[in-house]
Amino acid sequence: MTKDILKLTTLTAAIVSVPLLAFAELSVGDQVGTDEAAIRAWMEAQGAEVTEIELEDGVIEVEYTLGGAEYEAELDAATGVVAAMEADDDDSDDDDSDDDAVDEDDSDATDNG
Fold it and tell me: How confident is the prediction along the chain (113 residues), in pLDDT tens digits per residue?
């Protein structure tokens, strides 16, 4: 019974850590490439599936899936170096769910006096 619990615990830990390990395959500072073919080849060699590549304001935005999770990386368009990256979540700011929150910038907008 103890061996079964150990096996189950080990398996659960492995399953939970897969997205974290997958995210570690790409790091800020990695040299990926500047053209679509090079970017796709590098990402696929890491086990990622590229879903979108677009150039915007001197930044190459690469959306990809890895280990069942969605990610976005920003590459410097001149050098192909990863400048930023993040895990995509389904909670985007487009849903207006946090509109009641007060930003520090907005707190000066109302004058109660």
Answer: 666 665 655 555 444 444 444 444 788 999 999 999 999 999 999 899 999 999 999 999 999 999 899 999 999 999 999 999 999 876 555 444 444 434 444 444 445 55
Amino acid at 53: I
Classified as helix, coil or strand, 79 is coil
Q: How would you class 7 by CB atoms within 10 Å of its CB: exposed for 0-12, middle for 13-18, buried for 19 or more?
A: exposed
C-alpha–C-alpha distance, residues 38 and 54, integer Å? 14
Task: Answer yes or no: pTM beyond 0.85.
Answer: no
